[in-house]
Amino acid sequence: MPLRLDSASPDFEARFSDLLAGKREASRDVNDSVAAIIADVRARGDAALVELTNRFDRAGVTAATLRIPEADIAAAAARVSPQVRAALQTAHDRIRAHHERQKPTDHIYEDHLGVTLGTRWTPVDAVGIYVPGGLASYPSSVLMNAVPARVAGVSRIAMVVPTPDGEINPAILAAAEIAGVTEIYRVGGAQAVAALAYGTAAIARVDKVVGPGNAYVATAKRQVFGQVGIDMIAGPSEVLVIADGSANPAWVAADLIAQAEHGAGAQSILVTTDPALADAVESEVERQLALLPKQAIAREGWEEFGAVITVASLAEAADLANRTASEHVELALDDPEALLPAIRHAGAIFLGHHTPEAIGDYVGGSNHVLPTARSARFASGLGVLDFMKRTSLLGCTPAALAELAGPAITIAGVEDLDGHGRSISIRLNR
Amino acid sequence: MPLRLDSASPDFEARFSDLLAGKREASRDVNDSVAAIIADVRARGDAALVELTNRFDRAGVTAATLRIPEADIAAAAARVSPQVRAALQTAHDRIRAHHERQKPTDHIYEDHLGVTLGTRWTPVDAVGIYVPGGLASYPSSVLMNAVPARVAGVSRIAMVVPTPDGEINPAILAAAEIAGVTEIYRVGGAQAVAALAYGTAAIARVDKVVGPGNAYVATAKRQVFGQVGIDMIAGPSEVLVIADGSANPAWVAADLIAQAEHGAGAQSILVTTDPALADAVESEVERQLALLPKQAIAREGWEEFGAVITVASLAEAADLANRTASEHVELALDDPEALLPAIRHAGAIFLGHHTPEAIGDYVGGSNHVLPTARSARFASGLGVLDFMKRTSLLGCTPAALAELAGPAITIAGVEDLDGHGRSISIRLNR
């Protein structure tokens, strides 16, 4: 049974805090092994990369075969059914269209003193995309990572994907082909991240590494951060559904199950003002679970991490949502816009009864790479801005410099940086 | 003597690569000690914080005196001269005015299928600002970190500053007062970062930690990343000046010295199309160094890390600047705008002969917290966006859902996520 809480209970605060604090994944300390792998790849380059790949993935690669030939990409992509190709193309086109609208504009202006000030955006040159292999190998994630990079204007995208026992999901390669990614290497784990960050003979280094992965990949990203940029440290997925009496319990139940079927600590929470809906959703989850091919995973996730919370008002529901700062928040309400301003911390918000979260996973157009584990308090979903950077511009006329010199030299003095002051005063001498 | 390179020399490529690869700070591996400090603060809270603070800073604090009373802030601020206060106020007002223009706007629209898509910006709730104590304790940095947070709408700003032997620069507190920061704790090091990230009885936890610090602080930020957001890992400061024959050698020399006087690995590079200017600047640096009170630090930095590079064209200069991806790039040219599009990787660009970098450090209005150590390849200077996060919005009408259902269910099938497909198909049954 999932946790059932009522915000009116005396012990609610304590139990809700426990729910928030609960760990949903084993935090494995792989710091030392990852540091050793990174050091090895830095020291021995491809030799280390090949050795580690053959050991961990039993892939039988050499430095010459690390890269998947473009002909092989095309051949694999061709093995995917026309229906799947068309679906991936639709997803790609919608993701692309939406992300095109995220492109920032430069903002450069002159202030009242004649000082030029501004922000200019430019793309990152080279990006590495990590794509997990095996079970959680999702072609949709290839699109979600590659498309914003391309829209940003990134000129080189290098994709790495482990191929355990030499196997790769052809839909992954089809998605890469649709997204225009042609530089793909069959490597994974911390060794792939190290190669992307520091470069080897076979894999030129990139400027930023994005994409989800296991504990080794996440730790490697943390360790190479600074040498390259990284996106975020992804945790288990999660949804929080806010529903009132207008919600359809079967639809809400289906959404809770969709989240729980990710397994690996995925969490589904229902917050509702309607106790009858809460009961009906719980029954519906049971009924629908019984019909699901992978019911074991979904049931385990629902029972271990799921929660159904009844509250007195939608305002209270919004408050709990903000404290949870969930990756996905669904507003299963007739008038979702009315509650929208109250939801301040969420990776993505899904509006109304006809927007199941799964639409956003694939074809809505928005990005499905979103902050997890309460990091929506400070982090954002992946987007075009993540593949660009800002340069600030400053320009003074002689008159503007003369105007600003006094306070600048004064502060330089307080900071004991005379050379700073002198670089200004020397320009004032006629 | 600084390094002198000519891009026409046969060994130029090798020597320039060495310059780029050169380490300018000892990379101290303090991972284990930092992990132990963070674990201690998490386990024992204020007791650990007080013990560590009294051990490292000899500060004689208790849990009750960790926070600096507002009356003490006001009293310290009042000890600062009216001239310094006015200068800090000018800096504050200009930084504020510029950052007000960085505020993002939400972008929400309906596409041709009637799907609502959008990006909404909201501020981070609580931010911790780390301010170094001791030598490199800069009131200007307090403004550069606090002002964008306030402009973003952050409702709580907690500042931590170590007070070695109980001492604190009153200008730091004056800057905090001007920026409206009233919650200030006399703690520093990894223990301060741990307290901000996880909270203690005395210091409530925040959502994001920003600000520069030593190896312990940088390592602690890296380790708490994910639990909270962080800004960047700051390295030694650096400037690259691109100059042609129109530049004043004395002014360029003053700018190179201003950077070098930061010490601690700070780097000054001149790239010029004019060998005569290169010679003149080198002589001027010598002449001006002799007049500088802190000449030892600046001379050491200039001789150890400085470089003067002659090139055949401004295009070549821009190429070297992009490969260097410097924190600060000065364009000491009559027509800086002409070269601007060619400079793609830089933290900040200073336009023309009358814009010494030091103006940007204090009163230009732009932020002086900028990416160092070549991270301008992927990172940006601090700004309002760093204190906000994006939530994506998605809303389907029944008709739009029906339109998108097919491809979404197909992709869910390929990914073996039947529950995802069912959350869509269940809504299509009439």
From TrEMBL, chains A, B:
<feature type="binding site">
    <location>
        <position position="214"/>
    </location>
    <ligand>
        <name>NAD(+)</name>
    </ligand>
</feature>
<dbReference type="Pfam" id="PF00815">
    <property type="entry name" value="Histidinol_dh"/>
</dbReference>
<feature type="binding site">
    <location>
        <position position="361"/>
    </location>
    <ligand>
        <name>substrate</name>
    </ligand>
</feature>
<feature type="binding site">
    <location>
        <position position="415"/>
    </location>
    <ligand>
        <name>substrate</name>
    </ligand>
</feature>
<keyword id="KW-0028">Amino-acid biosynthesis</keyword>
<comment type="function">
    <text>Catalyzes the sequential NAD-dependent oxidations of L-histidinol to L-histidinaldehyde and then to L-histidine.</text>
</comment>
<keyword id="KW-0560">Oxidoreductase</keyword>
<keyword id="KW-0479">Metal-binding</keyword>
<protein>
    <recommendedName>
        <fullName>Histidinol dehydrogenase</fullName>
        <ecNumber>1.1.1.23</ecNumber>
    </recommendedName>
</protein>
<dbReference type="InterPro" id="IPR012131">
    <property type="entry name" value="Hstdl_DH"/>
</dbReference>
<feature type="binding site">
    <location>
        <position position="420"/>
    </location>
    <ligand>
        <name>Zn(2+)</name>
    </ligand>
</feature>
<feature type="binding site">
    <location>
        <position position="237"/>
    </location>
    <ligand>
        <name>substrate</name>
    </ligand>
</feature>
<feature type="binding site">
    <location>
        <position position="361"/>
    </location>
    <ligand>
        <name>Zn(2+)</name>
    </ligand>
</feature>
<feature type="active site" description="Proton acceptor">
    <location>
        <position position="328"/>
    </location>
</feature>
<comment type="similarity">
    <text>Belongs to the histidinol dehydrogenase family.</text>
</comment>
<feature type="binding site">
    <location>
        <position position="262"/>
    </location>
    <ligand>
        <name>substrate</name>
    </ligand>
</feature>
<dbReference type="GO" id="GO:0004399">
    <property type="term" value="F:histidinol dehydrogenase activity"/>
</dbReference>
<feature type="binding site">
    <location>
        <position position="259"/>
    </location>
    <ligand>
        <name>substrate</name>
    </ligand>
</feature>
<keyword id="KW-0862">Zinc</keyword>
<dbReference type="InterPro" id="IPR001692">
    <property type="entry name" value="Histidinol_DH_CS"/>
</dbReference>
<comment type="pathway">
    <text>Amino-acid biosynthesis; L-histidine biosynthesis; L-histidine from 5-phospho-alpha-D-ribose 1-diphosphate: step 9/9.</text>
</comment>
<feature type="binding site">
    <location>
        <position position="191"/>
    </location>
    <ligand>
        <name>NAD(+)</name>
    </ligand>
</feature>
<feature type="active site" description="Proton acceptor">
    <location>
        <position position="327"/>
    </location>
</feature>
<feature type="binding site">
    <location>
        <position position="259"/>
    </location>
    <ligand>
        <name>Zn(2+)</name>
    </ligand>
</feature>
<keyword id="KW-0520">NAD</keyword>
<feature type="binding site">
    <location>
        <position position="328"/>
    </location>
    <ligand>
        <name>substrate</name>
    </ligand>
</feature>
<feature type="binding site">
    <location>
        <position position="262"/>
    </location>
    <ligand>
        <name>Zn(2+)</name>
    </ligand>
</feature>
<feature type="binding site">
    <location>
        <position position="130"/>
    </location>
    <ligand>
        <name>NAD(+)</name>
    </ligand>
</feature>
<feature type="binding site">
    <location>
        <position position="420"/>
    </location>
    <ligand>
        <name>substrate</name>
    </ligand>
</feature>
<dbReference type="InterPro" id="IPR016161">
    <property type="entry name" value="Ald_DH/histidinol_DH"/>
</dbReference>
<keyword id="KW-0368">Histidine biosynthesis</keyword>
<dbReference type="InterPro" id="IPR022695">
    <property type="entry name" value="Histidinol_DH_monofunct"/>
</dbReference>
